[in-house]
Amino acid sequence: MGPPHRGHDRPPDRGAPVLPGGVLTSLDGLYRAEYGRVVAVLIRQCGDVDLAEECAQDAFAAAVERWPSDGVPPSPAGWLITTARNRAIDRLRRESTRDARQRAAALLDPGLPEEVGIVTDDRLRLIFTCCHPALAPAARVALTLRLLGGLTTPEIARAFLVSEATMAARITRAKKKISAARIPYRVPREADLPDRLRGVLAVIYLVFNEGYTALDRSELGAEAVRLGRLLVELMPDEPEARGLLALMLLAEARRPARTDAGGSLVRIGEQDRSAWDAELVAEGHALVRQCLRRGQPGPYQVQAAIAAVHSDGPSPDWTQIKQLYDQLLTMTPTPVVALNRAVAVAEVSGPASALELVNGLALDGYYLFHAVRADLLRRLGRPSEALDAYASALTLTSNPAEQEFLRGRIHQCAREAKPMA
Q: In CATH, which superfamily holds the domain spanning 334-421?
């Protein structure tokens, strides 16, 4: 995903020049890594979501136009932030009809002291400020995903398992609520941090999941881990923050083994464990042990414990995994958790018991529901039904690695379903 033009999730073709010497590739990578930072800095300084997004997008568009001839500046991220800030100042002064607008422009003056507070990282500050209690929980998460990672509306909709139109309306309502309720974009007081933790954890986890699922967006996973580490430093007595960091580290450790040489997805049970990052696994296990000693279990801690069991030894203890999913389902009784639990049930009690559980779940629009159901049908010797389920899963994912994996399963089931001559 390249730098977007104002008002669009994807950049329209503006006839931008082809940048020499890998500049276009560098800019695309910079957009992925720094868009959230640029927006976060502007929101903190001007308090206007739309203005921050528009000026950040303008800055990336200016880079596309100027860097081919001027060259990449020594500090690309600093150049983008400065350019975006200057655009914001110009716009505020040009549109200024009241003293309030002039004061807003003055706040962007880099010579003025900045409000810092207890949260010093701009992107983590943005998450906390967006998780204001006046916004609905789902709106807080969706808006922050849009602002922090530059995720498109379809990407966010996929994370929430809702339609693109529903998500677009949700984000628009959140922005209007901020404006109408005059919700300030400022660093929350230390006393407010615990009340906003749940939303912050959800945002960081969804940012990580987007990078983990997309496979080609590893910078989102790295950013989520970075934010997770900062959150643990900021709130060391919050076991769920520690649990989330452990969960992300244990998942990130598997990244090198998640695809084969052809780019197809490799399921965890079939991955080459020697390719896993041993340091991340060890760190994740240590965090899980710290959580267990605290004795205050929560959903992220339980998920981290499940990930730890998966990475413990040559093969996982499925009975223990099922028990942990039993516990997680009482904490988070969602169809997705029930689906994951059914996978563990299949290993403990067999695919027939698991299929009965899966068939009762209302997840028809979720590709993994069909993929899990297809796998169970295949294991039960029902290849024709499995083929149909795999085909349904294929229509619900745009991830190339997942698509390649599903096509392989479809071909396998087609061969098995073919009548013998």
A: Tetratricopeptide repeat domain (1.25.40.10)
